[in-house]
Amino acid sequence: MNYFAVITTCGSEDEALRIANHLLNEKLIACANWWKVNSAYWWEGNCERAEEYMVFMKTVKKNLKAVESAVVTMHSYENPEVIQIPISGGSEKYLDWVKESVK
């Protein structure tokens, strides 16, 4: 599969925008969507709850390592979520746009 969605969560909208804008400016992703979410997770033996911003990005396979590296480097979290989800299908016109929008 050539197309992927990459997901991360950030502690603030500013951080989400900073990461998304960097990846867009570097043409590593075609687009990013973000929204406020409520999260519950285990961290250092405690069940934590937090308001975060989920960032949902679309890209191509060849950019996955660079996207992950940039997110991890720019992120404020010690162990940021970076999940890659293969896109098995979709609008051919949209997927062509994704491919044409990245380097």
Describe this structure in words.
The protein is elongated. 24% of the residues are buried. It has one domain (3-101): 2-Layer Sandwich (Alpha-Beta Plaits), CATH 3.30.70. It has a four-stranded antiparallel beta sheet with strand order 2-3-1-4. The chain contains three helices and four strands; from the N terminus they run E-H-E-E-H-E-H. Helix 1 runs antiparallel to helix 2 (64-74). With 103 residues, the chain is of the alpha+beta class. A hairpin with a 2-residue loop joins strand 2 and strand 3. It has helices at residues 13-25, 64-74, 92-101, and strands at residues 3-10, 31-43, 46-60, 83-86.
Keywords:
103 residues; alpha+beta; Alpha-Beta Plaits; 4-stranded antiparallel sheet; 33% helix; elongated
Summarize the structure.
The chain is of the alpha+beta class and 103 residues long.
Which range does the strand content fall in?
35-45%
Across the major sheet, the strand order is 2-3-1-4
Helix content: 25-40%
Report the principal-axis shape.
Answer: elongated
Helix run count? 3
User: How many strand units?
Assistant: 4
CATH topology grouping: Alpha-Beta Plaits
Can you tell me the CATH class? Alpha Beta
Q: Specify the structural class.
A: alpha+beta
Largest sheet: 4 strands, antiparallel
Family: Belongs to the CutA family.
Pfam family, one: CutA1
Protein name: Divalent-cation tolerance protein CutA
Organism: candidate division TA06 bacterium
